[in-house]
């Protein structure tokens, strides 16, 4: 059996078997291409208004105090931007609230329309919008469909290109034929889009494997010569680790601190200024507010647009302003670096807006690949049935010796 034939039939069968699931993931993937930008755009009118002159921003602690006293509730996370018009974004429970960085005035809550739409698209993309117990099964279906799609893309590397590398044979594979119609058009589109989208589509698909499966995640670390990190989770015994071991006084102190909504924000303004000095060219800095005023603060510093792990760092400061830990992308192990890159290579965000656009175009190309692939399979099936009916309708030849 020739190699082309050996690859063609599994390629076709896989495409027919999981085509519908790949189509759903591809369509939703296109709609999710600019998810972060669209959510930010939906709240783009929430801007801080710098006063006349060089008036500084309102100290973050005072801003949080004013927000809490106005009935805003305890703040779990704070994010500030480098631009003068950037609002201060606070998270309190399920709410995201935008505050004027100079006056502390509430600009509004994060709008839910775009965010909910993107959330619905992610649900379809990851587990076909199933809820409850069916989600685990649906997630396995999308995961293994992605693995099948990886085989389709890899086998397509051989099937889509001609046997002879001359322009006469290569042209129908890399250039659209305007006059083509029917089967010839489907074949031409399938080959041309497959050829041009091959590399980015391979990256998008293979980078989804560690997201879909624990063994895929472990494989990334092992490929980089590392042992995979222990998976999160565990039984009830692990949940209470470090708690309720007889340190009653410590527990009562934590409870008293938890009743003070701003206890964990003590000294935040000075520490935030210190964090801003750590990285030149930062765009956003966010910090989770702990319950205790003695707990260190971990500042997530981002020099990119939010989806570039190579431009992120985490600075942990104690309440005196001393560095507890400072972790950059370069300081991570090769396994963690590769895992982070693959996470954002799936969406193209690792290369910024350009990468997102390339990933979106390749994903849109996969929509056409699925459509034309199924169309070609149906045409092949109808032709096979027609030949079979034609042979069955032929008269039985008479035996001359009879």
Q: What order do the SSEs take from the amino end to the carboxyl end, as H and E?
A: HHHEEEEHHHHHHHHHEEEEHH
Mean pLDDT: 89
Radius of gyration: 28 Å
Reported for the largest beta sheet, the result is:
8 strands, antiparallel
The general outline is elongated
Q: Structural class, from secondary structure content?
A: alpha+beta
Helical segment count? 14
Estimate the strand proportion.
5-15%
Q: Stretches where pLDDT falls below 50 for ≥5 residues?
A: 234-259
Q: What proportion of the residues is helical, as a percent range?
A: 40-55%
Number of strands: 8
In whole angstroms, the N-to-C terminal distance is: 40 Å
Strand order of the largest sheet: 4-3-2-1-5-6-7-8
Chain-wise SSE layout:
Blueprint: H1 3-31, H2 35-42, H3 60-72, E1 77-81, E2 88-92, E3 95-99, E4 106-109, H4 112-127, H5 134-159, H6 167-174, H7 182-206, H8 209-212, H9 214-223, H10 236-239, H11 248-258, H12 268-276, E5 284-288, E6 297-302, E7 312-317, E8 323-328, H13 334-345, H14 352-393
Antiparallel strand pairs: 1-2, 1-5, 2-3, 3-4, 5-6, 6-7, 7-8
């Amino acid at each position: 059996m020739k190699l082309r034939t050996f690859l063609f039939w599994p390629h076709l069968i896989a495409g027919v078997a999981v085509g519908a699931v790949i189509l759903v993931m591809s369509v939703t993937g296109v709609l999710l291409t600019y998810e972060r930008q669209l959510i930010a755009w939906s709240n783009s009118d929430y801007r801080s208004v710098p006063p006349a002159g060089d008036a500084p921003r309102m100290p973050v602690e005072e801003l949080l105090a004013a927000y809490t006293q106005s009935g805003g509730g305890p703040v779990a996370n704070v994010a500030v931007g480098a631009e003068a018009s950037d609002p201060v974004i606070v998270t309190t429970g399920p709410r995201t609230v935008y505050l004027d960085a100079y006056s502390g005035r509430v600009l509004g809550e994060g709008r839910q329309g775009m965010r909910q739409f993107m959330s619905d698209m992610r649900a379809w993309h990851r587990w076909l919008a199933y809820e409850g117990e069916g989600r685990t099964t649906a997630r396995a279906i999308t995961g293994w469909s992605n693995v099948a799609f990886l085989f389709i893309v890899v086998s397509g590397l051989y099937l889509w290109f001609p046997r002879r590398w001359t322009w006469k044979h290569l042209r129908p594979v890399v250039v659209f034929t305007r006059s083509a119609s029917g089967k010839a058009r489907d074949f031409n589109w399938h080959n041309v889009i497959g050829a041009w989208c091959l590399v980015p589509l391979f990256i998008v698909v293979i980078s989804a494997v560690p997201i879909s499966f624990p063994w895929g995640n472990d494989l990334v670390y092992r490929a980089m010569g590392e042992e995979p990190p222990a998976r999160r989770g565990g039984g009830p015994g692990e949940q209470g680790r470090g708690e309720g071991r007889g340190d009653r006084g410590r527990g009562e102190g934590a409870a008293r601190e938890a009743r003070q909504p701003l206890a964990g924000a003590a000294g935040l303004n000075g520490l935030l200024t210190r964090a801003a000095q750590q990285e030149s060219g930062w765009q956003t800095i966010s910090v989770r507010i702990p319950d205790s005023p003695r707990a260190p603060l971990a500042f997530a510093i981002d020099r990119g647009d939010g989806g570039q792990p190579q431009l992120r760092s985490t600075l942990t400061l104690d309440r005196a302003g001393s560095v507890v830990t400072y972790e950059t992308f370069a300081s991570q192990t090769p396994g963690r670096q590769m895992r982070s890159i693959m996470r954002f290579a799936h969406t193209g965000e690792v290369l910024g807006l350009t990468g997102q656009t390339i990933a979106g175009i390749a994903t849109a190309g996969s929509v056409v690949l699925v459509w034309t692939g199924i169309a070609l399979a149906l045409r092949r099936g109808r032709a096979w049935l027609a030949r079979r009916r034609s042979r069955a309708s032929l008269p039985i030849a008479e035996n001359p010796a009879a």
